């Protein structure tokens, strides 16, 4: 199982535009990835579902956990999505 913890860099957290960019990238990975809060209180949910991701209510600076059960391709997918989440996706 691939797993990565990452702090969300977007100034608005995973809301609206940042969530859409993240979900679009998750869909492009070709493997199923899940996201949940690091405290385990919210999620994990399908990272390719905009409603599920936004429903987590993740705020800026909050730590999340990305997981994939696909060992080989999952590691690359989780790493790519973690790198994306570290950026401020709401910056112009």
Relevant terms:
four-stranded antiparallel beta sheet, alpha+beta, globular, 4 strands, 92 residues
Description:
This protein has 92 residues and is an alpha+beta fold. The protein has 3 helices and 4 strands, in the order βαββαβα. It has helices at residues 17-28, 50-55, 71-86; strands at residues 2-7, 34-37, 45-46, 63-68. The protein has a 4-stranded antiparallel beta sheet, with helices on one face. Helix 1 (17-28) packs antiparallel against helix 3 (71-86). The longest helix is centred in the C-terminal third of the chain and has 16 residues, at 71-86. The radius of gyration is 11 Å and the shape is globular.
Tell me, briefly, the overall form: globular
- Regions with pLDDT < 50 over 5+ consecutive residues? none
Structural class category:
alpha+beta
Helix-residue proportion? 25-40%
Measured by DSSP, the beta-strand proportion falls in: 15-25%
Spatial sequence of strands, sheet with the most strands: 1-4-2-3
Number of strands: 4
Ends distance: 35 Å
Mean pLDDT: 95
CA gyration radius, whole angstroms: 11 Å
H/E series, N to C?
A: EHEEHEH
Report the total helices: 3
Main β sheet profile:
4 strands, antiparallel
Keywords: Cytoplasm, Phosphotransferase system
Domain HPr: 1-92
Subcellular location: Cytoplasm
Protein name: Phosphocarrier protein HPr
């Amino acid at each position: 199982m691939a797993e990565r913890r990452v702090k969300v860099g977007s100034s608005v957290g995973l809301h609206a535009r940042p969530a859409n960019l993240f979900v679009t990238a998750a869909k492009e990975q070709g493997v199923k990835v899940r996201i949940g809060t690091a405290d385990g209180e919210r999620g994990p949910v399908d990272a390719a579902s905009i409603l599920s991701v936004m429903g987590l209510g993740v705020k800026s600076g909050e730590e999340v956990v990305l997981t994939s059960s696909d060992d080989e391709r999952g590691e690359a997918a989780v790493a790519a999505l973690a790198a994306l989440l570290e950026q401020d996706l709401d910056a112009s």
